Automatic annotation (TrEMBL), chains A, B:
CDD domains assigned: HTH_ARSR (cd00090)
InterPro entries (UniProt xref): ArsR-like_HTH (IPR011991), AsnC-type_HTH_dom (IPR000485), Dimeric_a/b-barrel (IPR011008), Tscrpt_reg_AsnC-like (IPR019888), Tscrpt_reg_AsnC/Lrp_C (IPR019887), WH-like_DNA-bd_sf (IPR036388), WH_DNA-bd_sf (IPR036390)
Keyword Ion transport belongs to the record: no
Chain residue ranges for the region called Disordered: 173-193
UniProt xrefs under Gene3D superfamilies: 3.30.70.920, Winged helix-like DNA-binding domain superfamily/Winged helix DNA-binding domain (1.10.10.10)
Keywords: DNA-binding, Transcription, Transcription regulation
Protein name: Lrp/AsnC family transcriptional regulator
Every HTH asnC-type domain range: 24-85
Species classification: Bacteria, Bacillati, Actinomycetota, Actinomycetes, Streptosporangiales
Length: 215, 215
DNA sequence: GTTGAAATTAGTACGAA
DNA sequence: TTCGTACTAATTTCAAC
């Protein structure tokens, strides 16, 4: 369920599929913008908000769906109200050449909302939601740690989710600045003023070349 | 847009709202289960799949929406297809007593898909999506690092998103095990066998008590 | 890509169980 | 509360332009 394969975000369910598919124009983007905020809007209303005819809206809507640009429509649920009050991030170090097993085990854990393979100190980050702290602890110690592919874990709790956007679009630009904070248009790029010491990119750990290979 | 306030996941837009609201029963959960997989299903079809009448489905559907259990419906878009091929996680150390400013600045950055305040070595984790690595670099060095509230950042790239579920429900239990991997029902809890050394819970950093206070 | 009309479906309002 | 039905409004489909 909801598993992704191979390269980042390439899980369309059609393994052999390659190519650009749809070339998205400004109207496609506008459609996506509306749909991310109201996934249940009628196509008629969508057409009006985007400024095209209903028939075109149906055509483009279908094309976006068929081409996999829109993967699904979903309800955004309040986890706390639904009974899962605690969220944690678990950073996992995966044993070399056991990635396939790790993926398979994760697929068996419905409590895992998100899993990404990352560069840096750890190999993967997973997000889990549970009813309470004890349940998080139990999951990490009893189920995650018992996976042979898992070499080590590091858990942090989420104290507050400040921002959660359904997804980001290329058309998302910085919102129009207010008069108080607007910069002059001719402002030079800030690159020269960047305090470089503030930033640190973390390189990949050793033993990652086998990431998509099998044991 | 899409900002959350105060306590974890409590952003309902109704600041004074306190209390349990709806008491969710099994049918509510079933409704949520259907809706997370198909957010555009008609209420009639929903009623059929859940096994209640059309009228009841409307009532419960509206109640879930009005009570904030369902926060919104949204389209799940393929970021790569939409033109944002690179995803990164940025771990941010926030200067003490500047949380409010940090939040305000984040709200101005539409490229940020997710931001959570965490325990552990860093104070916050944000997820950003950009067209390429250079754009990530530019965002982190030019915009994030120039926020006074940001003391330091650490960036890792996401190489693959293995799993991404719309959300997790309490009713999600471990999927029915296959014959090959099923355990006997009387299996003792694995607690005694846990290799505790594998796990490490990370405590909060110093200076976090002021998290919700202002400068 | 657009408009307009037919067919279908959705949303609402009742009384009854 | 939930169900069943009937009524009205809206949406989707399909045609021709």
């Amino acid at each position: 369920m909801t598993e992704m394969s191979g390269a980042p975000s390439s899980g369309t369910g059609v393994p052999g599929r390659i190519g650009i598919g749809l070339q998205l124009d400004a109207i496609h983007m506008k459609i996506l913008e509306v749909l991310r905020e109201n996934g249940r809007i009628s196509v008629a209303a969508l057409a009006e908000r985007v400024g095209i005819s209903r028939a075109s809206a149906y055509t483009r809507f279908e094309a976006l769906r068929a081409d996999g640009v829109i993967k699904r429509f979903t309800a955004d649920v309040d986890h706390v109200r639904a009974g899962l009050g605690i969220t944690a991030l678990v950073f996992v170090t995966v044993r070399q050449q056991m990635w396939k097993q790790f993926r398979a085990q994760l697929a068996q854990m419905p409590e895992v909302e998100y899993c990404a393979i990352t560069t840096g100190q750890h190999d993967a980050m997973i997000q889990i939601r549970m009813a309470d702290v004890a349940a998080i602890h139990a999951l990490v110690t009893e189920r995650l740690a018992s996976i042979p592919a898992v070499k080590a874990t590091e858990t942090v709790f989420i104290l507050d989710e400040v921002l959660k956007r359904p997804y980001v679009l290329p058309s998302d630009r910085r919102p129009a600045a207010t008069a108080r904070t607007r910069r002059p248009p001719a402002d030079p790029p800030a690159q020269a003023n960047v305090p470089l010491g503030k930033m640190r990119f973390v390189v990949a750990a050793e033993g990652r070349a086998d990431m998509h290979r099998e044991p």
